[in-house]
Amino acid sequence: MDNLDSFWMPFTPNRAFKAKPKLLAAASGMYYTSHDNRQILDATSGLWCVNAGHGRRQITEAIQKQAAVMDFAPTFNMGHPLAFAFTEKLAGFMPFDLRRIFLTNSGSEAADTALKIALSYQRMRGQGAKTRLIGRERAYHGVGFGGISVGGIVRNRMTFGTLLTGVDHLPHTHGVPGNLFSKGEPEHGGTDLADALERIVALHDASTIAAVIVEPVAGSTGVLVPPKGYLQRLRAICDKHDILLIFDEVITGFGRLGAAFGADYFGVRPDMICMAKGITNAAVPMGAVAVSNRIYDTFMQASETPIELFHGYTYSGHPLACAAGIATLGIYEDEGLFARAASLAGYWQEAVHSLRDARHVVDIRNLGLVGGIELEPRAGAATARALEVFDRCYDKGLLIRVTGDIIALSPPLIVEKAEIDTMVATIREALQETV
Ligand code: PXG
Ligand code: PLP
Asked: Fewer CB within 10 Å of terminal CB in the chain, N or C?
């Protein structure tokens, strides 16, 4: 590779990367092939997205076939059969009555779309004063102006101006005494943490609040598993005050927790679900927002303009993405991958928690096929230790993800037990070698 100058890489220390690049050249099953022709075991499903494993033939063929038939068709005032076929199939995967689906091209667009639907919905039903949006500390909802406003990552916000006004944040759910090294959902603090929403309601009044948006399990900021009862309590408070509850399931969707969605796993009914990533097994970019029939019907019944929602993307329902999506959902069904993830979750839990006595480890968290391993930060050099572990793992043929000083693991749902053992053994070794 001669010249790395032109590509301004996303969320990357460009100068450091370009001095020592890591390039991936091919992918199949559980493995990447690196540019220098090494096999790299993928413990992160790419970026939490290749849930069915890499290079799935059915998906590739569906994309090839569609590209040869029709490259693109507009969905503004027009349509094409695959967009309807895909959303119908996807509706069959959705929990509760979240059967109306708006298509986007990414999770960021899904998050911004959901927030806009919430605001417009409240207005549509005569609650136009309900404009406030409530997010959470340490939340990631992508990088659009809406998503970073309700998001809880200071760095993602601080240089970008005033953003949305009328936003408030719940406390994050991490760090309750007694919850360290919890296996699965932590025991303590769920009710109190959710009751913070009551305080926000008391502060602003329910008549000003449109929606609450949360990730069922916060992924990006280090695998923060909600304590028992937390999401149930959020739902109850939202019901009490007539506030919409949005689950951002860009990571927790499509089997990651061992159920189709986090809403299924926790048995909590959101009013909307944001999704992306695993929706097409990442083969073509796509995102979506599923909304309840009640929300959709309100738009159809109350809209005073022919167009019910003034929102959409050139590529909403792109034919190649729809083709990839149909093939992906077919694989999830045929191979029972969500049930497979559920059946591996116990093995995964014990494997990840076996690192409890490894060097530098201060906490371990898990749910479904997600694991978070938190390291003691190096004095005066936050994130440096985790980055060194990342580099060492990569050199040993393992791709992990690090965020701050936390290792976040999310293997494809096709992972075998022996590969889980390799992941854990490699991380242990890398931790041991890291100062
Ligand atoms: N919501 C959630 C909950 C996410 O996890 C997005 C929205 C945005 O999706 P797009 O497709 O616009 O990136 C995400 C994305 C990481 C990592 O390493 C996580 C994400 C993206 C990139 C890296 O944790 N999550
Ligand atoms: N900017 C300009 C000038 C455009 O014409 C469009 C779409 O027509 C957009 C941005 C939005 O692009 P997209 O629909 O791909 O999000």
From this structure: N
Radius of gyration over every alpha carbon of the chain, rounded to an integer in angstroms: 21
Q: Are residues 204 and 353 in the same domain?
A: no
Residue 1's pLDDT band, with cuts at 50, 70 and 90, is low
What is the 378 CA–ligand 1 centroid distance (Å)?
Answer: 26
Distance in Å, CA 314 to ligand 2 centroid: 7
- Measured at the alpha carbon of residue 97, what is the angle toward residues 278 and 201, in degrees to the nearest 5? 90
Could you tell me if residue 404 is inside a domain?
A: yes
Asked if residue 8 belongs to a domain, the reply is no
Q: Convert the pLDDT of each residue in 349-384 to its tens digit.
A: 999 999 999 999 999 999 999 999 999 999 999 999
Name the residue at shortest CA distance from atom 4 of ligand 1.
Answer: 250
Instruction: Based on the fold, state whether residues 32 and 67 are members of the same structural domain.
Output: no
Which ligand 1 atom is nearest residue 249's CA? 3
Calpha distance 144→108 (Å, rounded)? 6
* Residues sharing a CB contact under 8 Å with residue 210, sequence separation 6 or more, in sequence order: 118, 119, 121, 122, 127, 130, 131, 132, 133, 243, 244
Calculate how far, in angstroms, residue 142's C-alpha sits from the geometric centre of ligand 1.
Answer: 6
Q: Is the CB of 419 under 6 A from ligand 1?
A: no
- CATH code assigned at 67: 3.40.640.10
Residue 195 covered by a domain? yes
